[in-house]
Design brief:
The chain contains 16 helices and five strands. It is of the alpha/beta class. The chain has a five-stranded parallel sheet, sandwiched between helices. α2 (30-47) packs parallel to α5 and α13 packs across α14. 29% of the residues are buried.
Length: 339
């Protein structure tokens, strides 16, 4: 019985003979061109890539690539050969590298439970809450998980470029899919979107320490007028800022409106242990070293980055991660002394 061979993936990668004029013009580079073209076709077929995809990945214009591959390119062939040769080398180098290990799926930690409870309070009571948790303690991961498992939750992240009232409103409009080009109507459009949900909506503003004071006051306005939950998530600055300026009218109003403040400046030891366990670490010495790393600034984030690099080292030698891998990974990251 003849074995059926699927030839569809070879379609479009036939290698026709080039034009006579092409051969005559590029006689010095033609052998190099044939070899490179064959390698390009092999890579494309192996990955089921079209010519358009290869063109995009290699950075060569699609029309130019088509001419180069078919043997009708009128320009300097040497330059095109060089570009495709460099692309082939990059593809082969990437294929030879071990896969970058991925972080564990969402881990239910003690701090993530506290964050989720605070978010739920804000959503159920249409209240304004503050969550100030130190870096690397799964704030954003928990917010994303909460949003994925609860309806009517919106999550906007503020950067130094969107810290103003208008910048924040534009960011919120994008998250809420509000299409309003008139700046004067943007606040009402966003509020109406939150209010239209029919109750039980929650707006989470991440990296809230970047916001200017007027922008924070605008969020209080949303909570007051449109009866939606607001969660300001960030570092301690977002709370300490208005404690130091308690005499200001807007700060007094904001303090009065904060229904709950979750504050945690150090990771729980049980959370460090749970996160290390999620990485599958069982060796006692490796666990102890990772625990020490988790107690530094960046907490679980430091463990995560170090384990990714250490795992790549171990994967290259087809063995489990050990203490030396952790030490080498930390030294390679060059972020802080282990001592």
């Amino acid at each position: 019985m003849n074995k059926h061979i699927d030839t569809s993936r070879f379609s479009g990668w036939e290698q026709p003979e080039p034009d006579v004029a092409f051969v005559a013009k590029h006689s010095d580079e033609i052998d190099d061109w044939r070899l490179i073209r064959e390698q390009v076709a092999e890579i494309a077929i192996a990955n089921s890539w079209t010519k358009a995809e290869v063109s995009r990945r290699s950075g060569m214009k699609e029309s130019t690539f088509s001419q180069w591959f078919s043997g009708s390119y009128p320009g300097r062939l040497e330059n095109m050969n060089r570009q495709m040769r460099q692309w082939i080398e990059a593809v082969l180098e990437a294929a030879a590298m071990p896969a970058i290990p991925t972080s564990p799926a969402f881990v239910k930690l003690r701090i993530s439970g506290e964050i989720a409870q605070t978010l739920q309070w804000a959503q159920m009571t249409a209240d304004l809450v503050m969550i100030t948790v130190c870096a690397g303690n799964s704030k954003t991961a928990t917010v994303k998980h909460y949003k994925a498992t609860h309806p009517h939750v919106y999550h906007a992240t503020i950067s130094p470029h969107t810290k103003t009232v208008h910048g924040m409103l534009v960011e919120l409009a994008a998250e809420l899919e509000v299409h309003e080009n008139n700046p004067a109507k943007l606040t009402r459009a966003i509020g109406g979107r939150l209010q239209r949900i029919g109750g039980g909506s929650l707006l989470v503003v991440d990296e809230a320490q970047n916001l200017v004071d007027d922008a924070i006051n605008q969020l209080r306005h949303f909570s007051d007028i449109y009866q939606c939950g607001i969660a300001l998530v960030g570092n301690e600055e977002v709370y300490s800022r208005f404690l130091k300026q308690s005499s200001g009218r807007s700060y007094a109003q904001l303090k009065r409106r904060v229904g709950k403040h979750l504050k945690r400046q150090k990771p729980y030891m049980e959370d460090i242990a749970a996160f290390i366990d999620a990485w599958g670490v069982t060796d006692r010495d490796t666990n102890r070293l990772l625990t020490g790393i988790g107690m530094k600034g960046g907490a679980l984030g430091q463990i995560d980055k170090t384990m990714k690099l250490a795992s790549m080292i171990a994967l290259g030698e087809d063995r489990p991660v050990n203490v030396k891998d952790i030490q080498d990974a930390w030294k390679n990251r060059d972020v802080e002394d282990l001592g």
